[in-house]
Write a structure and sequence with these properties.
Blueprint: H1 7-14, H2 18-27, H3 29-81, H4 85-92, E1 108-111, E2 128-132, H5 138-146, E3 150-156, E4 159-161, E5 175-178, E6 186-189, H6 194-209, E7 214-218, H7 233-249, E8 253-257, H8 263-266, E9 272-276, H9 288-292, E10 297-302, H10 311-318, E11 327-331, E12 340-341
C-alpha cells in the first residue's frame, strides 16, 4: 500500500521544475506579444530620436544656407550702390577714352631728371605731372592716376638721343648737327623724314600702352636753331600738325613746346602750351592766345639752384602781368622733383 503524499509533497510534486518554467516562459503567447510590443515601442523611440536629430541637423544646415544667401544679397545690394575702389582703379588705368582737355590755370609739375620717386614727391596741389615716357613704367602712371592726377609723357620729337632704347631705329641720314647748350648725346632730327615720323608714331603707341593722358613732344622748334638741316617754320607746322593728328587718333592730348612764332598756326590742334623762360626772353605775349582760348600755359622759369628765389627775384616772376594766368613753376635746369610755386 502506497503512502499518500503529504500536502507539502503534493505541492512540490505539482510545482514545475526550473527547466519546465523556462520552457513555459519562452513558449507563452502572452510573453511573445509583450516582447513584440516592447520591441516596437523601443524601435519607435529610436526612430523618433533619429527623426528629431535629422530635423535639428537640417534646421542648422538650412539656417546656414539662408544666412549665406542673405549676406550675399546684402553685399550685392551694397556694391550696386557704392562702386568698389578696385573698379575705380581699373577705370583709371585703362587709358583715356576721350581726348583730355585741361583748362587754363591747371596746376602742374614736371620731373624729367629721373624716374618719379614717390618717397619725396609732392602730390598736394598738383593736378598734372609731366614725366619722361621712357624712364617711368606703367605702374608709376597708374599710381599717379590713383591719386587723381593726369599724366603727360615727355619725349623728344625733334632730336636723336643716343641713350634711348629705340635709338637704333634712326638712320644716319635722319640726324643733323648736335644740340647746343651742353646737351650731350643729342643731335637734331630731320622732322620731314618718313623714318623719323614712323619712330614718333611708335613712341605714341608706347604712351598709349602705358596709359599716358597726353604727350609732350620736345624740340619741335628746330627752325630757330642751327640744325644743319633744312627746317623752317612751315616744316615745323607741318610736323606738329602730323604729331597732333597721330596723338588724337590714339585719344592722347598733346601740347606745343615753346614755338612762340607758330602758335597761331597750330593752336587749334593743341590742348596746351609748355613754355620755358618766356619772362627771361620777354616773349610771354606770344603764348597769350592759349589763355584767350582757355587752354593752359604750363610755364617754367629757372632758378640757379634748389634754394629757390626770394624777394624781388621771386616777385619779378610771380607778379608779372605778361604771364598772368599762366601755370608758373620755378625749377632748376635738371628738372628734378624740386620745384617752387608762386605764393
Amino acid at each position: 500500500m502506497s503512502k499518500s503524499p503529504t500536502v507539502t509533497e503534493w505541492a512540490l510534486q505539482d510545482e514545475p521544475t526550473k527547466r519546465e518554467f523556462d520552457v513555459f516562459r519562452k513558449r507563452s503567447p502572452g510573453s511573445r506579444a509583450a516582447r513584440r510590443w516592447c520591441g516596437l515601442r523601443a524601435s519607435g523611440i529610436y526612430l523618433g530620436i533619429l527623426l528629431i536629430a535629422v530635423l535639428v541637423i537640417w534646421g542648422a544646415v538650412w539656417g546656414t544656407i539662408h544666412h549665406h544667401e542673405r549676406t550675399r544679397k546684402e553685399k550685392q545690394s551694397t556694391s550696386s550702390q557704392q562702386p568698389r575702389r578696385e573698379h575705380i582703379t581699373d577705370a583709371a588705368d585703362v587709358g583715356p577714352t576721350e581726348i583730355w582737355k585741361p583748362r587754363d590755370g591747371t596746376a602742374w609739375q614736371i620731373v624729367l631728371y629721373d624716374a618719379v620717386d614717390f618717397n619725396n614727391l609732392g602730390l598736394e596741389g598738383v593736378d598734372v605731372f609731366d614725366i619722361d615716357l621712357f624712364d617711368n613704367d606703367a605702374s608709376t602712371i597708374a599710381m599717379l592716376h590713383r591719386q587723381g592726377k593726369k599724366v603727360i609723357c615727355y619725349f623728344s620729337a625733334g632730336s636723336y638721343e643716343n641713350f634711348r632704347p629705340d635709338s637704333g631705329s634712326f638712320t644716319k641720314d635722319d640726324c643733323g648737327k648736335p644740340l647746343g647748350g651742353g646737351w650731350k648725346g643729342e643731335w637734331w632730327l630731320n622732322t620731314q623724314s618718313a623714318n623719323v615720323r614712323r619712330v614718333m608714331k611708335a613712341r605714341m603707341d608706347l604712351a598709349v600702352s602705358k596709359h599716358c593722358d597726353g604727350v609732350d613732344p620736345d624740340n619741335v622748334d628746330g627752325y630757330d636753331n642751327d640744325t644743319g638741316l633744312s627746317l623752317s617754320q612751315n616744316s615745323a607746322v607741318d610736323y606738329i600738325r602730323f604729331l597732333a593728328d597721330e596723338a588724337h587718333a590714339r585719344k592722347l592730348s598733346i601740347g606745343l613746346k615753346n614755338g612762340g612764332a607758330i602758335v597761331d598756326r597750330v593752336l587749334d590742334k593743341m590742348e596746351w602750351e609748355i613754355n620755358e623762360q618766356c619772362l627771361q626772353y620777354h616773349e610771354c605775349n606770344l603764348y597769350r592766345p592759349f589763355i584767350d582760348a582757355r587752354k593752359p600755359v604750363f610755364h617754367i622759369e629757372y632758378a640757379p639752384d634748389e634754394t629757390g628765389l626770394k624777394g624781388t627775384k621771386l616777385d619779378a616772376i610771380c607778379r608779372n602781368a605778361t604771364s598772368s594766368g599762366f601755370s608758373t613753376l620755378i625749377k632748376t635746369l635738371k628738372l628734378t622733383q624740386w620745384y617752387q610755386n608762386c605764393p
